[in-house]
Amino acid sequence: MLTPLDIQKKEFRRSFRGYNEEEVDKFLDQLVQNYEALYLENQSLKEKLENGEAAMARYLEMEKVIKNAVIMAQKNADDLERNARQEAELLLEDARLRAEKIIGDAEGKAARTLQEARERARYRIEEAENRVRDVMEEYRLLNKQVQMFRVKFRSFLEAQISLLDDQEEEVLEMMSNFGSGWLEAAAGRNGDDAGGREDTDSAAGAARGNLRAGEGDPGEQGDDGDR
Q: pTM for this structure?
């Protein structure tokens, strides 16, 4: 491309009947000025275009970077959301399993406690029933022993009464056989003639006492009767 200096330094050869030199130079000077203005404007426009293209390239690059950043951010956001959802689901599942385990343990413990309570209650009931049976058995044995004792004691009393009646009859019979002489002899041994009938009764009472003393302890008689 020609520059204004190339046009300004251009020299034409002279020829016969050529153009007017002064008009040509004046035109060339005007042409150089216009061309120089157009050349500078063209250079300025080229620089602006290059700057614009560079800016466009930078903007495109920045747009690409921003788009990539947005895409990456969106991808990261999607990954974070997916990871957060998965983590939440895992936590929820873990909480559900823990809750089920806690509920299961509690139900098992409650069942064991209830079973133990039932076992203890059944043991206490059986123990009380055994105790009642033992008490009732002891009561029956004691009642039987009381009944046996009453029968034996009644038999003993009846035997003693019968024995006393027999002995009293024997004494009266002996006294009637000895007659009044025996009574007087008994009174004389006491040395008191004035005792009369009282001494006679005393002698008879003494004789009864001796006879009773010869019969021994009633308890022993009862034991003998039991035997």
A: 0.39
Domain total in the chain: 1
Give the DSSP letter of residue 107: H
Question: Quick one: which of 188, 192, 180, 187 has its CA closest to 203?
Answer: 187
Q: What are the tokens at 89?
A: 């689901």
The half-sphere exposure of 191 on its side-chain side, counting CA atoms within 13 A, is 0
Q: Is position 117 within any domain?
A: yes
- What counts of helices (H) and strands (E) characterise the chain? 5, 0
Cβ neighbours of 160 (radius 10 Å): 15
Q: Is residue 180 part of a domain?
A: no
DSSP 195: G
Domain that holds residue 112: 4-12+20-174
**CA 171 to each of CA 1, 13, 166, 181: distance values in angstroms, whole numbers, following the listed order:** 192, 214, 9, 16
Residue 135 pLDDT exceeds 70: yes
| Cβ atoms of residues 3 and 35 within 8 Å | no
What are 145-179's pLDDT values in tens digits?
999 999 999 999 999 999 999 988 888 888 887 76
Residue 71 lies in a domain: yes
Q: Is residue 155 part of a domain?
A: yes
Q: Which residue has the tokens 């559900």?
A: 96
